[in-house]
Amino acid sequence: MVDWKGLAKKSIEKSTEVAKQGVSKSKEKADEKKREKALQEEQDLAFEKMVLGASLRAEKLNLKGKNKKQILEAEHIRNQQIRNNQFVFEKPAKTTVIIDDNFVRITHKGITNALTVGSSGEKVIKISDINSVQLSPPGGIASGYLQFTLAGNRNTQGLSEAVKDENSVIFIKDDLDMAVVIKTIVEELMAKDASGVTVNQQDLSPAEELRKYKALLDDGILTQDEFDAKKKQLLDI
C-alpha cells in the first residue's frame, strides 16, 4: 500500500529545501551586486579625486548633473594632454597648440577657421622668432585670444583682428587656464633661448613648474589651496 502521507511529507520537505536554496542564491546575488556597487563607487571616487587634483579648473566644473562621469573622463583626457604640452581648444573654432622642444605648432581646423584665418593645417613657429606673447582674457560674451608676435609683426589690435591672424588662438572662458599655461611655458622658453640655454620642456625643474603654477594663482586660475597642493606635490613635502 502506498504511503501517500509519507510521500506528501517528503514532497513538501523537498519543495521547502528548493525554496530555501532559491532564497539563498537570491541573497548571494544581491550581496554580490552590493559589493560590486560599493567597489564601483570607491573606484569612481578615487578617479574623481585624481582628475580634480590634476585639473587647473576643478572648482569650475559642474559635476552635479547626470553627465558627471562623462565630464570627469573628458577632463582626465584634457589633463593628460596639458601634461604633454598639447592644448586642444574646441570653441569657438577648433585649434590645437603643441609645444615641442623649441617650437610652437598651431593647427587650425574646421570651416570657421578656414573662413576667418583663411588657412588650415599646421603653422610652426620657432621660439627664437617670437618677440612677445599677448594674452587677452575673454570678457562677457566675447572670446579671448592668445597671440604670438613675431619679428617685424605688430601686435593684434583687438579680437576682430586676432580671428584673422594665423599666429593667434581664439578661446572661450572655460579654456583660459590653458591659454595662461601656454603663455607661461613659451615665455620661459623664450627666456632660456635668450640666455643661450637649451631646455626640454618635459624636464622642467620643480622650481620652474612652481613658477608656472604661481602665474596661474596670480591670474586667478588656481585657488590658494590648489596652489599649495601643487607646491607640496612638486617639492615632495
UniProtKB/TrEMBL annotation:
Boundaries of every SHOCT domain copy: 208-235
Region of interest called Disordered, as start-end residue ranges on this chain: 1-39
Signal sequence residues: none
Stretches of Basic and acidic residues bias are at 25-39
Annotated DUF4429 domain ranges read 99-183
Protein name per the record = DUF4429 domain-containing protein
Q: What lineage, starting at the top, does this entry show?
A: Bacteria, Bacillati, Bacillota, Bacilli, Bacillales
